[in-house]
Amino acid sequence: MGRKPKTKTERQKNEEAKNKKPNENKMIPRLRGIRDILPDEYRYWDLVLNKAESMIKYYGFLRTETPVLENVALYERSTGKQTDIVSKEMYTFIDRDNERVALRPEATPGLVRSYIEHGMFSLPMQPVKLYWIGNLFRREKPQAGRYRQFSQIDLEIFGEAGAVADAQIILIGYNLFKELQIDAQVQINSIGCPNCRPEYVKKLIEYYKQRPVRNKLCPDCKKRLIKNPLRLLDCKEESCVNARAAAPQIIDHLCEECRDHFVKVLEYLDELNVVYTLNPFLVRGLDYYNRTVFEFWSEDSEQGRQDALGGGGRYDYLVEYMGGRPTPACGWGIGAERMILKIKEKNIPLVDANQPNIFVAQLGEASKRKAMNFFEELRRRGYKAAQNFVKDNLKAQLELANKLAVKLTLILGQKEMMDGTILIRDMESGMQEVFDFKKVYEELDKRLK
Ligand code: AMP
Fold it and tell me: What HAMAP family has UniProt attached to this entry (predicted)?
């Protein structure tokens, strides 16, 4: 009889990791699935984050930050022990105080904890509308648009049960994609509530237990049938997609309250001209959602979740479940990297609000000092200027000015120093004119208008 192969214990794996020494002479590379963001890419980040923040603030959301490290139990209880995020992807470790900690894999649980811990239910301004921008960590299989450290923009509304809240957060996401010129579509469904869902789940299990259907399921879905049957509906395996075609749809099993709520959400969206697709198979991967669930898909995505741009829903029971007062809530998370990928793919032009339109050039030590002071004065007066004071050669400075596509270059040389003048060069025509230094701001204002 063959021996069962030994699997390594956690301790053995830890020992191995400790003993694995990097080659002393070699650079230590970054970890798999974790990226650097270099200056060239930051232009995209600025665009996305600035747009998102100004949009979200316009609707009255306030920024909140939560810690990267939280107690593991926070995610086990909220996200759910059976979810992929918690059971497979979360980075956890026991710290030196013997505390089980996790790198946050999701933003909502921390925001819920913060809402409860700071007694936000008694804030004068209700509902409480928060937004959050930060890093999340999931040990997923890295691929394009899927990293182990990534960024999300999240927003949450605490304390509003009405359909208007669901519709408004969907509208904000929809508007954000529009403003960034990303073609996105809203996929929406309702997954009911603890009153109506159990009956539906029973029907779903009955359907999937039929032998011909069950035989089509992938090994993961066979497990889901026992642990998390709703998730059978959003499996991306082709055979599971085929198997679900005749599955009962939750929309036909909603209680009256859930149906009313869903109809109202859709009516608001119609009124606001938000284009959406009813997707009976959209369930989202987490335990805490009820009623409305939605995702933002890029126009070219077929199966959705794999490359969804964002998603969210209502979670009316989570705050109470996490130890707070009963508080209806809803929210979404949108991935920054995926938005940036879309902007790059489509070559959407970037407009940099800080793009300089003046370059200050200098020739020689004395004029360099004056030019440095002049540059400071330009900054104080609110002009957008650029320079490279480590270069003394005029040709090299003009080349840089050209690269930066500035409108004017202001040149201070020995002669200008002596005469109290400055040369203004129009970069497009190449024309240069001498001006009294005292009148330079007047002339700039005229030419930059
Ligand atoms: P989720 O929190 O899983 O609902 O994801 C919400 C959004 O976050 C997704 O639609 C993606 O835009 C983004 N996202 C999720 N996981 C990753 C990942 N591993 N890498 C990059 N972006 C991700």
Answer: His_tRNA_synth
- The Cα-based distances of 408 to 204, 359, 436 in angstroms read 69, 6, 16
Identify which of 152, 169, 342 to mutate to test ligand 1's pocket (most ligand atoms within 8 A of the CB). 152
Residue 310 alpha carbon, nearest atom of ligand 1: 10
Q: How far is the CA of 310 from the centre of ligand 1 (A)?
A: 7
Quote the domain boundaries for residue 368: 358-448
How many independent structural domains does the chain possess?
Answer: 2
Q: Of 175-179, 227-231, 341-345, 361-365, which gets the smallest average pLDDT?
A: 227-231
157 contacts 128 by C-beta, under 8 angstroms:
yes
CA distance 174 to 59: 13
Whether residue 22 lies inside any domain: the answer is no
Task: Give distance in angstroms: CA of 386 to centre of ligand 1.
Answer: 38
Phi, psi of 398, rounded to the nearest 5 degrees: -70, -35
**The token pair that represents 353 in the structure block:** 């609000």
pLDDT > 90 fraction of the chain, expressed in percent and rounded:
78
Q: What is the pTM of this model?
A: 0.87
Asked whether residue 221 is domain-assigned, the answer is no
Q: Do residues 296 and 435 both lie within one domain?
A: no
- Cα of 405 vs centre of ligand 1, distance in Å, is 37
Q: Which is the closest atom of ligand 1 to the Cα of 336?
A: 12
pLDDT in tens, 138-183: 999 999 899 999 999 999 999 999 999 999 999 999 999 999 999 9
75 lines ligand 1 (CB under 6 A): no
Amino acid (1-letter code) at residue 447: R
Neighbours of 30 (CB within 10 A): 10
Render pLDDT for 89-119 as a digit per residue (tens, 0 to 9): 999 999 999 999 999 999 999 999 999 999 9
- Please give the number of the atom of ligand 1 that sits closest to the Cα of 338: 12
Ligand 1 centre from 336 Cα, in Å? 9
